[in-house]
Design a protein that fits this description.
The protein is an alpha+beta fold. The protein contains eight helices and 20 strands.
């Protein structure tokens, strides 16, 4: 297993694109950590810096407490799977997996035993003589995994390896990779822009934006307690409502929304009256009621503008009196509303997350 540490790492591409900006990160032995963010956020550059394909202009990279900042990729004890997989089409499965072992001149018998062992590990036993063009997309993926693991690296690096796969195969390979990683207990750094993929696979997620780390934490912690509006929007779906702090009462913060409604949030934050902020509300935490004449606590009126079924869920797009659209997500089986219905939007104080208003 391997431990990876980045200390104050920065990388700028000409003319002045700050791809990675002062990144500090520790990845512990055996962890599955995902670098997540939109295109251009710096996640792939960060992975390439760990691998040694890009050199930072500032900062240190340590693997197992050894400074590898200036070492070439083949001296870093990392195995990497690229987005394109980069398999050799003129070689069969055995040749692809054995490539790095041949370069390092391992004995033939040892090399053959290792390839057989890896084929068993990735569930491709007996396919060593197959040519790459004879394999399915999932089988090629497994060959790429086996090739990256051929030299027993202490760190496994993957750059959006499932990007070209269809939805069903992609989900199948996510499960296969996670099972493989748990079985061999290898430290893994995975890059994706797909938040569902990151949420389903990771021990921890590193959310990146414009070269910087916005938040690091478990999938559940990041989803339930986003550190910024960017994270709240990128990890799942959220409703962001502008608000002003009206009063702070022990563990409850009272906020006024643009339509004049008062919402309470059960949060212990150091905020003062008059502070501008954002309320983050996940769609599944919102409930709708037909009791529009009752002035219920922590609620406001709206009109259902759009409704759609998504699997077992119903999503309601509700227009508030201030002109904002709020999404509420329901399991089917509850009382349903129709487009055009006036509804009361009920908000759980425990579900209100207060964020800085000046975040992107």
């Amino acid at each position: 297993m391997g431990r990876v540490e980045l200390r104050k790492v920065s990388k700028t591409f000409p003319p002045s694109i700050r791809a990675v900006d002062d990144v500090d990160l520790v990845i512990e032995e055996g962890e599955f950590v995902t670098l997540l963010g939109p295109s251009g956020c710096g996640k792939t550059t960060t992975l390439r810096i760990i691998a040694g394909f890009d050199e930072p202009e500032k900062g240190l990279i340590l693997i197992n407490d050894q400074d590898v900042t200036t070492l070439p990729p083949y001296h870093r004890d990392c195995g990497m799977v690229f987005q394109s997989l980069a398999l050799f089409p003129h070689m069969n499965v055995f040749g692809n997996i054995a490539y790095s072992m041949r370069i390092r001149k391992l004995p033939k018998t040892e090399m053959q035993d290792k390839v057989i062992e890896l084929l068993q590990l990735v569930k491709l036993s007996g396919m060593e003589k197959r040519r790459i063009e004879q394999l399915s997309g999932g089988q090629r993926q497994r060959v790429a995994f086996a090739r990256a693991l051929a030299m027993n690296p202490s760190v496994f690096l993957l750059d959006e390896p499932f990007a070209a796969l269809d939805k069903n195969l992609r989900e199948e390979m996510q499960i296969e990779l996670r099972r493989l990683q748990k079985r061999i207990q290898i430290t893994t750094v995975f890059v994706t822009h797909d938040q569902r993929e990151a949420m389903s696979m990771s021990d921890r997620i590193v959310v990146m934006n414009q070269g910087r780390i916005e938040q690091v934490g478990s999938p559940r912690a990041i989803y339930l307690n986003p550190a910024s509006a960017f994270v709240a929007n990128f990890i799942g779906t959220t409703n962001l409502i502008s608000a002003t702090v009206k009063a702070v009462d022990h563990k409850t913060i009272h906020l006024m929304t643009p339509d004049g409604s008062i919402l309470a949030a059960n949060e212990e934050l150091d905020v003062t009256e008059g502070k501008e902020c954002l309320i983050s509300l996940r769609p599944e935490s919102i409930r709708l009621s037909a009791e529009i004449d009752k002035n219920l606590e922590n609620s406001f009126l709206g009109e259902v503008g759009f409704k759609r079924h998504v699997g077992e869920l119903i999503e309601y797009y509700v227009n508030t009196q201030s002109g904002q659209e709020i999404i509420a997500s329901y399991q089917t089986g509850r009382p349903e509303f129709s487009e055009g219905d006036t509804v009361r939007v009920l908000v759980d104080p425990k579900a209100c997350k207060i964020l800085e208003s000046d975040h992107p």
